[in-house]
Specification:
The protein has 178 residues and is of the alpha+beta class. It has one domain (10-177). The protein is 43% helix and 24% strand. It contains seven helices and six strands; from the N terminus they run E-H-E-E-H-H-H-E-H-E-H-H-E. It has helices spanning 22-35, 69-79, 82-87, 97-110, 128-137, 149-159, 162-171; strands at residues 10-17, 40-49, 55-59, 116-123, 142-147, 172-177. The protein has a six-stranded mixed β-sheet, with helices on both faces. The protein is globular.
Length: 178
């Protein structure tokens, strides 16, 4: 059985920062609040865009599955690179097209080779006011998309697909597991 439940919904939050280290610092603050019960992190990854345009994904230790797990697959789908092409037919419900477009526009506009970003997959409870406050302290705008559990169950199936794995390898410069 995978880590995602088909009867549960999830929240994907992405924030882009103007510094290569801010995503890591933001993550540490969010983790400290998770320990106090303000957030429940299912998966987390920080990432940067390299000079060649590819993404370097840093798994923050939550992914139980293959390489970049669902977060890596989600980032690839949002960016619309090889991962998006490999799985688009199987993941129509992963993100509403409006949410995907908003996330992609935010990443395209704000994530350059001098910045960093974080993707958090959250479950209830989420203290949204606190999360926004933490984001504000790092000068980050949080972009949010709701994910349906039944779509996440399909994502877990795709993670085992060799074509999808190959597409993720093409999408990212490097996937680092903490």
């Amino acid at each position: 059985m995978g880590i995602y439940q088909s009867d549960e919904d999830y929240d994907l939050v992405i924030a882009v920062f103007d510094s290569r280290i801010k995503a890591d610092e933001f993550y540490e603050v969010v983790r400290s609040h998770e320990e106090r019960g303000s957030f429940a992190i299912k998966e987390a990854a920080t990432f940067t865009r390299e000079e060649n345009g590819k993404i370097r994904l840093n798994n923050r230790g939550y992914v139980a599955g293959w390489k970049g797990g669902t977060i890596g697959l989600g980032i690839g789908i949002i960016l619309g690179g090889p991962v998006g092409g490999a799985v688009v037919g199987g993941l129509a419900g992963f993100l509403r097209s409006k949410d995907r477009r908003e996330l992609r526009e935010k990443l395209d506009a704000d994530l350059d080779a001098t910045g960093s970003a974080i993707a958090l997959m959250l479950t209830d409870p989420v203290d949204w006011d606190l999360l926004k406050e933490v984001g504000g302290a790092f000068d980050a705008e949080l972009v949010h998309a709701e994910l349906r559990g039944e779509s996440m169950a399909r994502v877990e199936e795709l993670i085992d697909d060799e074509d999808v794995q190959e597409a993720v390898d093409e999408e990212f410069d490097e996937i680092v597991n903490d």
